[in-house]
């Protein structure tokens, strides 16, 4: 409108100041100027409409691209979650198989110990020898080995006889403190208390596992269980420290992954 006003200003001024002197030529010029202005305005409007249409098309393409990217990301997240679930299930299966293999190994060790503890068979007398062979009288009944004690205690615990299993595990620790089964025996004592609902006694035993057998496989589990005990007691700061200690001391253990999950949940 400003451009139209500028273009028409001389003509209007001429008409208003001296209408009597306006000619047909002036009117035609005025009409031509108006037509030119209208054509310029129409051309500008058409260019702006084309730009708007192009912008709308570009915006639609960007929106479609974002939507497609979001869908791909959702599929990737779903696939990752499925893969993680599959890996966790496989780990559980491996742990179950490992536990079964360990139990079988302990049973074999117990059988070997029992065979070794059996007294030797008496030597039969030679033909014609009327001398009675001396009776095999061992000075005392042989003490069962660590694998035998472990199997007896573990069987009792598996049947739910936790109060019966504890003395057998403790007997193993007392008689064979350097056995490779001693850390497991100590850990299972804590689990028997936990199964009975005595979390305080269980936590004390788990702490004993960590302090007595820090390099044993069960130490990571015992330390993680200690963190869960603190967390349940609303001692969050101490629990976080224990979970971090599990990660620092036993970074490759399954309990380290569980501890990381606990810390992430606390941060959320």
Verbal overview:
- 78% of the residues lie in helices and 0% in strands.
- By secondary structure, the protein is mainly alpha-helical.
- It folds into two domains: 2-72; 145-267, Tetratricopeptide repeat domain (Serine Threonine Protein Phosphatase 5, Tetratricopeptide repeat).
- The chain starts with a helix and ends with a helix.
Concise description?
By secondary structure, this protein is an all-alpha fold. 78% of the residues lie in helices and 0% in strands. The protein is built from nine helices and no strands.
Number of domains: 2
Beta-strand level of the residues, as a percent range? under 5%
Q: What is the N-to-C succession of helices and strands? A: HHHHHHHHH
Low-confidence sequence ranges: 131-137
Number of helices: 9
CATH topology of the largest domain: Serine Threonine Protein Phosphatase 5, Tetratricopeptide repeat
**CATH structural architecture of the largest domain:** Alpha Horseshoe
Radius of gyration: 45 Å
* Strand-pairing-aware structural class: mainly alpha
CATH class of the largest domain: Mainly Alpha
* Largest sheet: number of strands, sense, barrel closure: none
The overall pLDDT average reads 78
CATH superfamily assignment of the largest domain?
A: Tetratricopeptide repeat domain
Report how far apart the termini are. 60 Å
Count all strands and give the number. Answer: 0
Give the helix proportion (percent range). over 70%
